[in-house]
């Protein structure tokens, strides 16, 4: 009998199927994919008291900081001093992803490129420049200040570091940027504008400017400053805001045809992608969840996947009072009766909200879940909310046969992006169409 998955795979030839052959990630749970993934599966929190900036006078004092990151492990120390912390994360993740994919500089084709997402390329550098301007005058600002705050500089630095002279672009759609960068990368590869793409996202928002901006919006958690590990609690009735996080993730994407030709290990297949706008409010989501639902439906349609085929949803799950019921409603709108069957979990419960990098980091987690048949938990889920009544995989990881997963990201301005990812089984010709 021919399955829906087999029909889907055969309908698109290997030159149009986009696969992941390498992954690199930098988060508060670790600087390697195994460290990050082990932390998620164990339900370990990377949230701690903020040390990167002053918190006096601010109601939130916790974040998902990366405390032991040294950019000199990944790039020349002079170059590291000239770029933003977000760019350092991007270069580090890219280096790890290329090594994971078995691609040395000499192995990269002429048409290799970069496509990264970011919300704000560098709050810390902008803040530092403003402080210098006010204290010492404008001519004392660092000459690297302006390049550091340009959103495209992380992608440009990755290209310069690894000599990637092909396609290069940046997506800046707030907290949807990482997912949207991966989705747009699918289209770039399918239309032949690149042979290999380093795609993902990066963000470094933890500084006094970032803290102040989100505090005055009343967007951040303030209830658990004395117990940081409990602060980020998506879908829980006691959630009171998101926790900022920092980090980056880069995935090596190429066509299945090219991956097979070079004998690459394939982690997963990117099956489909959708992006929409709420056209509703600058920060609040549409309470009817129309835009988010449309993004998910578009991703499913482009993937050729029926809603009932989805085995897991990696949620945006920010732990804000508005976002979690909104996302829950969107999932119900798309999946109907299956919504209560499909496990949903939020990595932000452990690493915080990495803004423009969140979707790329969560894509890595989703791929690991498909690979291992393990769903990471939503930690700090202690008190159910009647408005959030799905299966959020509370507090403990769960083994399950996973074949197809969805990863969601939603951003300020009503930006919605959704990605459908399929498990790849190299023992079968049809890859992601294989039965679990």
Description:
Helix 4 packs across helix 7 and helix 8 crosses helix 14. The chain is an alpha/beta fold and 436 residues long. The protein is built from 14 helices and 14 strands.
Quick structural summary:
The chain is α/β, with parallel strands linked by helices and 436 residues long.
Write the layout of secondary structure elements.
Blueprint (H helix, E strand, L loop, with lengths): L3 H8 L6 E9 L6 H10 L5 E2 L12 E2 L13 H6 L2 H17 L10 E6 L5 H14 L8 H5 L3 H10 L5 E4 L5 H14 L5 E8 L4 H9 L30 E9 H6 L6 E10 L12 H14 L8 E3 L8 H13 L8 E2 L2 H4 L6 H15 L1 E2 L22 E2 L4 E8 L3 E9 L13
Parallel strand pairs: 4-5, 4-6, 9-10, 9-13
Antiparallel strand pairs: 1-7, 1-8, 2-3, 6-7, 8-14, 11-12, 13-14
- How much strand content do the residues show? 15-25%
Order of SSEs, N→C? HEHEEHHEHHHEHEHEHEHEHEHHEEEE
Q: How many β-strands, per DSSP?
A: 14
Distance between the termini: 16 Å
The helix content, as a percent range, equals 25-40%
Can you give keywords for this protein?
single chain; 436 residues; alpha/beta; ten-stranded mixed beta sheet; two-stranded antiparallel sheet; globular; disordered C terminus
């Amino acid at each position: 009998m021919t399955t829906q998955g087999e029909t889907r795979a055969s309908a698109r030839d290997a030159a149009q199927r986009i696969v992941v052959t390498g992954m690199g990630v930098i988060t508060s749970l670790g600087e390697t994919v195994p460290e990050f993934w082990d932390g998620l599966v164990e339900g370990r929190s990377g949230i701690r008291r903020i040390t990167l900036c002053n918190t006096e006078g601010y109601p939130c004092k916790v974040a998902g900081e990366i405390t032991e990151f040294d950019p000199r492990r990944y790039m020349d120390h002079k170059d590291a001093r000239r770029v933003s912390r977000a760019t350092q994360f991007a270069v580090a993740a890219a280096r790890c992803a290329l090594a994971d994919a078995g691609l040395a500089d000499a192995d990269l084709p002429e048409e290799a490129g970069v496509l990264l997402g970011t919300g704000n390329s560098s709050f810390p550098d902008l803040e530092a420049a403003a402080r210098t301007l006010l204290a010492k005058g404008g001519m004392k600002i660092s000459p690297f200040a302006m390049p550091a705050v340009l959103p495209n500089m992380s992608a440009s630095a990755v290209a310069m570091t690894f000599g990637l002279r092909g396609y290069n672009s940046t997506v800046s759609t707030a907290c949807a940027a990482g997912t949207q960068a991966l989705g747009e990368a699918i289209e770039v590869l399918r239309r032949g504008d690149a042979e290999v793409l380093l795609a993902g996202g990066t963000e470094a928002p933890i500084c006094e400017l970032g803290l102040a901006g989100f505090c005055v919006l009343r967007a951040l958690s303030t209830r658990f400053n004395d117990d940081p590990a409990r602060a980020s609690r998506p879908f829980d009735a006691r959630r009171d805001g998101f926790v900022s996080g920092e980090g980056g993730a880069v995935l090596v994407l190429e066509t299945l045809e090219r991956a097979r030709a070079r004998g690459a290990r394939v982690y997963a297949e990117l099956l489909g992608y959708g992006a929409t706008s709420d056209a509703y409010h600058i920060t609040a989501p549409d309470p009817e969840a129309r835009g988010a639902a449309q993004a998910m439906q578009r991703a499913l349609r482009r993937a050729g996947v029926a809603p009932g085929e989805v085995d897991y949803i990696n949620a945006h799950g920010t732990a804000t009072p508005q976002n979690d019921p909104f996302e829950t409603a969107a999932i119900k709108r798309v999946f109907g009766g299956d919504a209560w069957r499909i496990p949903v979990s939020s990595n932000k419960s452990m690493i915080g909200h990495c803004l423009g990098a969140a979707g790329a980091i969560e894509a890595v987690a989703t791929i690991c879940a498909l690979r291992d048949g393990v769903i990471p938990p939503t930690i700090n889920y202690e008190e159910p909310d009647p408005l959030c009544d799905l299966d959020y995989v509370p507090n403990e990881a769960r083994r399950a046969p996973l074949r197809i997963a969805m990863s969601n990201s939603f951003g300020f301005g009503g930006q919605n992006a959704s990605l459908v990812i399929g498990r790849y089984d190299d023992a079968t010709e049809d890859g992601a169409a294989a039965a679990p």
